[in-house]
Amino acid sequence: MNPKNYSFLIFFLCAPNFVTACPVGCSCNGSSITCTSLSKPEFDLLTATLKDAPYNETTELYLSAVEEFLFPSVPDMLKLTVFKIHASPGDSEWFLRRHQFPELQTLHFTKGDLKTFPKALMSLTSLTELDLSDNKLENLGADSIHIRSIQKIILRNNEIKIIGVHVFRYMPTLKVLDLTGNNMTRLVTSDFTSAVSLKELILRNNKIELIETDTTDPLQQLETLDLSGNLLSEVRLEAQQNFRHLFSLNLSSNALHVIREGFLQLPDLQVLQLDNCDMSVVEAGAFVSLPRLHSMDIKNNPNLAYFSPYAFGNSTAFYRLNIQKTGFKRIPLTILEKVSQLYIKDTALDCSCTSRDMQDFGAVTIIDWNDATCRTKMGAVQKLSHLEKSEEPCRDNLLTPFGIKQTAIVGQAYRIYCANDGTNSKLFWVSPNKTTTEAKQPDLRKSTVKKTDYFTTTLLDPSYSKNHEERVHISTEYYGFDVVLESDAGYYECVSKSDMKTLTRKIELAVLPPEIYLNASHVATTSVHLSWNKNLKIEAVDRVALRITASSEKMFKRQVQLSLYNMFRSYNLVNLSADKEYEICLEWYLTDSETMIYKSCITQKTKPFKTVMQSLNAKLAIGLLVIMIIVVVFCCDTCIHQKYAYFSRMKKQAKMQQSISGQSMLTQSSSADATTYENFQLSVTSASERPLI
Ligand SMILES: *[C@@H]1O[C@H](CO)[C@@H](O)[C@H](O)[C@H]1NC(C)=O
Ligand SMILES: *[C@@H]1O[C@H](CO)[C@@H](O)[C@H](O)[C@H]1NC(C)=O
Ligand SMILES: *[C@@H]1O[C@H](CO)[C@@H](O)[C@H](O)[C@H]1NC(C)=O
Ligand SMILES: *[C@@H]1O[C@H](CO)[C@@H](O)[C@H](O)[C@H]1NC(C)=O
Ligand SMILES: *[C@@H]1O[C@H](CO)[C@@H](O)[C@H](O)[C@H]1NC(C)=O
Ligand SMILES: *[C@@H]1O[C@H](CO)[C@@H](O)[C@H](O)[C@H]1NC(C)=O
Ligand SMILES: *[C@@H]1O[C@H](CO)[C@@H](O)[C@H](O)[C@H]1NC(C)=O
Ligand SMILES: *[C@@H]1O[C@H](CO)[C@@H](O)[C@H](O)[C@H]1NC(C)=O
Measured from the CB, is residue 82 less than 6 Å from ligand 1? Predict the structure, then answer.
C-alpha cells in the first residue's frame, strides 16, 4: 500500500484528538449535532461542549428525549440557525437570554408539555419557522406569538379552540398556518383580518361545523385551504374579496351528502378534493361557478350514483377527475366528454351499461383502464378491457339516492331527488293531489344574484310587494320546495317513460313540525316580554317573513314585523292595555300568499294597574336596584376589561350589520291595526342563526 494512504488514515484517526470529541449520545456531522436520549449528566456535558470551538459554531442542533432540557443551560450560539427539540419537556417558561440565538431561523419544540405560548418567543427576532406540534396549547390569543419575521407556524395536535382577535397583527409576514388536529369548531373569516400574507391555511382534523364568512376582506391572499376531516355538513364559499385567489381546496372526509348548486363560487379554484364525503348527490350546477377548476377528486363515495349531467359549467379548463370507489352504475357521458384523465377503478359499473363509446374512450381517457371492472347481472366481476359486447341491453334505472321514505322539516328548503340514469326517457312527477307534470331540465340560478331577506328589502323599499317565483320546482332531477309546508306531506311519484317501458318510484314525504314554544318571560301592566326556544331554519329568506301578532277579544290587533335573523329570540311587546287577555302569536309566513308556514301562540293576561302606594314602593325598589347595579359594575370593572376584546369584536359585527339595516323604524298604522317594523335585533346577528343565503 502507498504510504501516502497511511498518513491520511492516521490523520483521520487523530483528528478528533485535536478538537473536543463529539459529546456522548450525540452524532456530529459538519456543523450539525444530533443527540437522542440524553440523561442529565450527558446533557450537561453537551452544553459544556457547545461553549468551545468548534461546537460553538454549530448551525443545526437536534435533540430528542433529553431528560431535563432547560433553555438557560444552552450557551449563546451565534451561528445556530436550526434548533429542533423533541419529546424533551423541561421548563415551560423558557428563559431565553436576549442574544442567545441571534441567527435562529427554525425552531421546533414538539411533544413537550406546553400549555401556553412562552413569552420568550418574542426574543427570537430572526425566526421564520416555528413548530410547536404535540403540545397542549389551548389559546392562540393576541399575546401568543409576536415575531415579525415569522413565515410558517405549525401547531398540529394541540387543543386550540378559537383564534383570538388581532393574533396576526404581530406576524405580518405569516404565510403558512397549520392547525391540524386541534379543537376548532368554526372558521370565522374576520379572525384573519390582519393575516394579510397568509397563503396556506390547514385546518385538517378539527371539529369545524360552520364557516362564517362574516366579513368580505380577509383571506384575500389565501391560495390553499385544507378543511378535510371536519364536521361540515354544508359548505358555501363565495368569493367577494376574500377567497378570490383560492387555488386549492380540500373538503375530504366531511359528511357533505349533497353537493348543492353553486356551492362554491371561487374564480381561481383549480384543485378540489371531495374524497370520502359520504356523498349521494351532485346537483345540477354544482361546479358552474368554478371557471378555472381543472382537477377534482371524489374518490371513495360509495353511495354516489346521482351525478347531474348539468353539474359542470361551460368551462373548458376541466381536465382530471377521479371517481374511484364511487357508486356509478354507468359513467355519465358528460363526464366522458369533458374529462381528459379519468380514474374509475372500483366503481360499481354495470357491465351491460358500459356502452361502446366507453370502449372508445377507454385506453385514452381512462387512466386506470386495465384495472377497471364492472359487474354483470349475475354479480360476476369482469375487467372492462376484456369485456365482450354485452348481449343484454342496459337496464333503465331510476335513481332515488335518499330512498322512498323521506322526512323534511317545516320551513326547510327540500328536494326529493329522483332521476333517470342517463337514458333518454321522459320524466314525469305525480304530486300528492294527483296532478301529473312533465319535468323540465333544472333551471340554474344566477349565482351572482344574492338573496336579500324580505325584512330588509321591505325596510329599504316599503313599496316592494311580492316574490312571484314558484315555491315548488319540478325538474328532471328533483321535486323541490323553497319552503316546506306541512301540507306538502304525501306520496310523490317519479315516472320515467320511454317507448320501451315505464318505470315508477313512489316516494313518501313526511313533514315534521318544528318544536318551537313561545313563552311570556315577563308580564307587566302594558307590556309582555316574549321569548322562544328556536328559530325556523329558512333558506328562502326573500319570501318568508316573521311577525308577532297580538289580539284581544275587542278586535284589537297589532302586528310587529321581525327580522328572521333575530338571534336573541325575544321581543318586548309594548303598548298593551292593562288587565286584559291577549292572544299572542309568533308566525312565519310566505309573503307572496300570506300562507302560514308555522305559528306558535299563547294567551296572556296583562297585569292590573298598581295602586299609588304600590307604585311608590316600586320606585323605591328601582332606586335600590340602580344603586346595586352601580356597586356591581364597580366591582366587575376588572372583569369587564378582560371581556373588552370580545366586545370589540361584537361591536364590529354589529356595525357591519347596522350598515345594511340602518336604525330606522317604520310605523305603518291604520286606525285599528298597526304594523311596526322592528329591527333593533338586526343590529347584532350571528352567522350561526343566519339562514343560508
Ligand atoms: C452529513 O451531512 C451531509 C450533508 O449535510 C449528509 O449528506 C450526510 O449523509 C451526513 N452524514 C451522516 C453520517 O449523517
Ligand atoms: C468559537 O470559539 C473560538 C475559540 O474560542 C472563537 O475564536 C470563535 O470566535 C468562536 N465562535 C463563535 C461564533 O463564537
Ligand atoms: C380537545 O379535544 C380532545 C379530544 O376530543 C379533548 O380530549 C380535549 O379535552 C379538548 N380540549 C379542550 C380544551 O376542549
Ligand atoms: C386532502 O385531505 C385528505 C384527508 O385529510 C388527505 O388525505 C389528502 O392528502 C389531502 N389532499 C391534499 C391535496 O392535500
Ligand atoms: C353554456 O353554453 C350554452 C351554449 O353555448 C349557453 O346557452 C349557456 O348559457 C352557457 N352556460 C353558462 C353557465 O355559461
Ligand atoms: C296540485 O299540486 C300542484 C303542485 O303541488 C299545484 O301546482 C296544483 O295547483 C295542485 N292542484 C290542485 C288541484 O290542488
Ligand atoms: C315555555 O313554554 C313551554 C310550553 O308552552 C314549556 O314547556 C316550557 O317549559 C316554557 N319554558 C320556559 C323557559 O318557561
Ligand atoms: C305606543 O303608543 C304611543 C301612543 O299611542 C305611540 O306614540 C308609540 O309610538 C307607540 N309605541 C309603539 C312601539 O308602538
Answer: no
